[in-house]
Amino acid sequence: MNKKTKISLLAVMAIALILLFIFLNIGNNWGYIVPRRGMKILAIVITGAAIAFSTVVFQTITNNRILTPSIIGLDSLYLLLQTFIVFVFGSTSFIVMNKNMNFLLSVSLMIIFAGVFYKILFKKEGRNIYFLLLIGLIVGTFFQSISTFMQVLIDPNEFMIVQDRMFASFNNVNTDIITLAIILLLATTLYFLRFMKYLDVLSLGRDEAVNLGVDYDYVVKRLLVVIAILVSVATALVGPITFLGLLVANVAYEFMKTYQHKYLFLGSILIAIVALVGGQLLVERVFTFSTTISVIIDFVGGVYFIYLLLRGNK
């Protein structure tokens, strides 16, 4: 089976699941149900595309297939920001109530953080991937500790506002920012296209890329900004999904059997859509909303992560 056939197969599966999700048990309430399910599907597609895209780029930059952008603390930073806003200004403040303002503030802070993180980790010689992993875990844990400290001090009713943003769920998608998310996603994609040609070379490693004429520091710095925007878009829409990127990127590597990023991007995005729509169907039709899709994805992703670690030791 060649690569185009595999992409076509994934596209058919994604479209079939989307149609099943929209029209299953719809009855005579087309006018009420279709727009709502359509917005949910749109959020799923945006989230899946952003997470899959950013994870493949991040793994290419770091040259490691068991890492996701969450390792540098972007998810923890988002939760810290949301907790801090509620802790300081209250749940009825303008920043909390105005979702577009909250979204733009989150994106800006995560981009600034990614830029500072890049300067610290990649500027000096001798800093390797293990240093990135160590600092990322420390920073993420530090952010989580501060968030937990503030969460135990705030009013229980206001903690419910924070709790809604701690776990990814497509049952309460932030539809108010979908238009803004689409604009940001398209603008980021257009900006990214100028760096697309470097990814196949970057996957060879830093030294090989430099020897082949790539301005490594310049390209990687801008790709980190792209990753920060994509992660913040996905996180602000539905909340943090830790293992989704790891899962879909590695399945795409195994299924596509290629190093060419044009196929890896398409494959990982379609696999993410299949996983999210299929998972949401399970949540709604099998588990009857007794759990969230993030629980299912984190469970499957966690098992797959252990499998990757065990396979790497052989």
Can you describe what's shown?
The protein is mainly alpha-helical. It has one domain: ABC transporter involved in vitamin B12 uptake, BtuC. Helix content is 76%, strand content 0%. Helix 5 runs antiparallel to helix 11 and helix 12 crosses helix 13. It is globular.
In DSSP terms, counting alpha (H) and pi (I) runs of 4 or more, how many helices? 14
Task: Please tell me what the overall shape is.
Answer: globular
- Largest beta-sheet characterization: none
Q: In what range is the share of β-strand residues?
A: under 5%
Poorly predicted regions are none
CATH superfamily: ABC transporter involved in vitamin B12 uptake, BtuC
If you compute it from the alpha carbons, what radius of gyration comes out, rounded to the nearest whole angstrom? 20 Å
Looking at the structure, the CATH topology is: ABC transporter involved in vitamin B12 uptake, BtuC
Question: Mind sketching the topology for me?
Answer:
Elements: H1 3-23, H2 30-62, H3 74-89, H4 94-97, H5 99-122, H6 129-151, H7 156-164, H8 178-192, H9 199-202, H10 206-211, H11 216-238, H12 244-256, H13 261-286, H14 293-313
Helix pairs in contact: 1-2, 1-13, 2-8, 2-11, 2-12, 2-13, 3-5, 3-6, 3-7, 5-11, 8-11, 12-13
Write a compact overview of the structure shown:
The chain is mainly α and 314 residues long. It has 14 helices and no strands.
List keywords for this structure.
ABC transporter involved in vitamin B12 uptake, BtuC; mainly alpha; 314 residues
